[in-house]
Amino acid sequence: MVRSSLWLYSFLIVLVGSLFAAWHALAQDIWDEAAAASVNKELNRADLIEKGRYLSVAADCKACHTAEGGSVYAGGRAMHVPLLGTLYSSNITSDIATGIGGWTLQEFERALREGIGKDGRNLYPAMPYVSYAKITDEDIKALYAYFLFGVAPVHERPPANKIPQLLSARWPLYFWNLLFTPNKPFEPNPQKSDAWNRGAYLVQGPAHCGECHTPRGLVFQAKAFDETKKGFLAGGPVLDGWEAYNITPDPIGGIGKWTAEQLTEYLQTGHVNRLAQAGGSMAEAIENSLANMHDSDIAAIVTYLQDIPPVRGRVRMPRQSLGNPATDVVILRGNPLSRDIDPRKKADGARLYLGFCATCHGVDGTGSKDGYYPSLIQNSTVGAKDDHNLRQAILEGISRTIDGEEKMMPGFADKMDEEQLKRLVDYLRAQFAVPPRQTREPNN
Ligand code: HEC
Ligand code: HEC
Ligand code: HEC
User: Fold this and answer.
1) Counting beta carbons within 10 angstroms of the beta carbon of residue 135, is it exposed (0 to 12), middle (13 to 18) or buried (19 or more)?
2) Which of 251, 263, 283, 436 could form a disulfide with 400 if both were Cys (CB 3.0 to 4.6 A apart)?
3) What's the CATH number for 320-432?
């Protein structure tokens, strides 16, 4: 009798216990969902969504999360990651199955600032969470509101990454983050103006200029995250063939000689007569992002850039101050091209220039009078210490559309072989990348 009631008693305890546990889990779920729903209700506001939209432009989420010819934000853009392979960006539309429609604010925040996906896996730093770590709580909320309520769902699954099995483990990223990610939101410097602080925030955080413009270390970690550490924006590694120059205010190594007006014009249009044009990833950043930002934000960025510690590097002359008008092409001009296109001929570079470039950039290299076709003299890309961007501009061409107006230079990748490219580049550098009034023999 005693034994059987003991048994019944234990049975009841276990039964009640499990019922309670089940109820608790269910209630927790319902409560969590209710809490998330009420948070979401609070975030589904037109002003917040608009703020988030603007931030998404400043942060250029579109650039990486849209495949060529694909739906905006549906992901699938291929990105070549050094040492690893090819990575495809995620779908970040509000689709629940293939996008981030089912994500909570906390999950979104962790992906943006810590580089952790919904399922807890570490994201590759091709997603610039190292910079986005600086985005404030308020701005994260606005971005979340925009992506969840302002972006229509697109049901599309990006292709699987092409990374060798051996290298595809994500756990090393955990340690990489531990060592190299600052991971704290931006804190204003009370000694500086509001404009300076706004500029600092945009440059370091959402606009992620440092991802391209800051030098990297051995395992590809950024050497600085803000102006308090030397090297911030002092020139980045070569990515997809393009090099992002030193943009610290050093008058020789960086952009110290640019006026605030020139810097503003560059960031808004990508073109400053007799100084610089934007190609490659900078053209994209201007087209998608900077050209669509408020004037006051661009002014803030300029204020900040002109005040960070200057870094010189190993350059002796500002890259925008070099070059002489070419004269030899004028002499060659009357001769038929076929006569002496000879790889051993010294003037071959000049001939290539005359054949491929002079129609737009002028026989002497000074461009067109109105500057539409830029001068190659005193040109920051031609005068740069390394010829990466000059080669890329020739191979890929340039294309930027700002306010509906397209600037276009054709690419020449299929028109010349490596040997000809080398001769042309040598010629251009001997002519337009040497100190003024001191022409060297071309091709020596
Ligand atoms: C420079 C390129 C780049 C930019 C700019 C960028 N992303 Fe990403 N993002 C990626 C890549 C690549 C991945 C995938 C990383 C991986 O698979 O490890 C990713 C992953 C994500 C994820 C995780 C998705 C998932 O399913 O795990 C979210 C969320 C995200 N990005 C949101 C954003 C938002 C919001 C912005 C703008 C504020 C942004 N990204 C800007 C490249 C970028
Ligand atoms: C995705 C990479 C990338 C990002 C992000 C980026 N840049 Fe650039 N930037 C470049 C490249 C590449 C060039 C060289 C373009 C060329 O030679 O045509 C460049 C050139 C420049 C130049 C001209 C320098 C010169 O001497 O010609 C300035 C100024 C500049 N960037 C400022 C910025 C600022 C400010 C930001 C952030 C708001 C930024 N960039 C973000 C890649 C980037
Ligand atoms: C059809 C006209 C045209 C031809 C031909 C042409 N270019 Fe250009 N080039 C342009 C235009 C337009 C731009 C961009 C101007 C701008 O960005 O505002 C440009 C830009 C450049 C730049 C600046 C790139 C940068 O990233 O800063 C260089 C360097 C250059 N061209 C060199 C050459 C060379 C070398 C050749 C011959 C192989 C050549 N161009 C042929 C029209 C032309």
Assistant:
1) buried
2) 283
3) 1.10.760.10
Asked if residue 127 has pLDDT above 90, the reply is: yes
On the question of pLDDT at 58 being above 80, the answer is: yes
Nearest CA to ligand 3 atom 18: 271
Residues with Cβ within 8 Å of residue 98, at least 6 apart in sequence: 91, 154, 155, 156, 157
**Separation of 427 CA from ligand 3 center, angstroms?**
15
pTM, rounded to two decimals: 0.90
Residue 443 is predicted with a pLDDT of: 38
Which residue positions form the known binding site for heme c?
61, 64-65, 209, 212-213, 357, 360-361
pLDDT digits (tens, 9 = 90+) for 304-337: 999 999 999 988 899 988 988 887 665 565 554 4
Nearest of 84, 394, 392, 70 to residue 240 by alpha carbon: 392
Give the nearest ligand 2 atom to 289 CA: 38
| % of the chain exceeding 90 in pLDDT | 68
pLDDT score, position 5: 66
- Counting ligand 2 atoms within 8 A of each CB, the residue from 209, 232, 264, 282 with the most, and so the one to mutate, is 282
**Ligand 2 centre and the CA of 255: distance in Å?**
11
Predicted local confidence at residue 35, as pLDDT: 66
Angle between helices 2-43 and 137-145 (to 10 degrees): 90
Task: For residue 61, report the distance from its CA to the centre of ligand 1, in Å.
Answer: 7
Q: Which of 396, 390, 378 lies closest to 424, judged by CA?
A: 390
Enumerate helices (H) and strands (E) in the chain, giving the number of each: 17, 8
Q: Which of 243, 387, 403, 409 to mutate to test the pocket of ligand 3 (most atoms within 8 A of CB)?
A: 409
Q: Which residue has the tokens 């998404």?
A: 56
Retrieve residue 365's tokens.
Answer: 């290299």
300 has pLDDT over 60: yes
Assess whether pLDDT exceeds 80 at residue 191. Answer: yes
Span 270-294, mean pLDDT?
96
Q: Quote the ligand 1 centre to 64 CA distance (angstroms).
A: 7
